[in-house]
């Protein structure tokens, strides 16, 4: 299988000191492809925003394995913030209706009710550059894009979102 690397390239109109917020999904990626992309983008921390990070379906991204691979292969750290994940009700409703607008509204309301953005403002666990992890292969119709948008709107106002 041929691997296509996604490496962020700065736009000519951007300042180099702009904070970059990366996102990545692991589905449909081999471990080799996944860690090559993460390494190529000089990621220092992976922020896992899945509710369940120990499922057999997670393959090489199960919490214990991922922490080991990040540390040993990339000298990067791992943090799990399940409060940025949608709950089962939101996921179930979306699976039944495929209504992305409703999913988005429900997700934003949930994140607001959890108060996680304010807690992250007070005590940020982030080490730059970091990447938000989810399972979906693409960011459209994935909560990692919504989480990245909320983080750049409230914590990293000079941030640029880069989907790997």
Automatic annotation (TrEMBL):
Q: InterPro entries annotated for this entry? A: DUF488
Q: What would be one Pfam family of this protein?
A: DUF488
- Name under which the protein is recorded: Protein containing DUF488
Q: Which organism is it from?
A: Candidatus Magnetominusculus xianensis
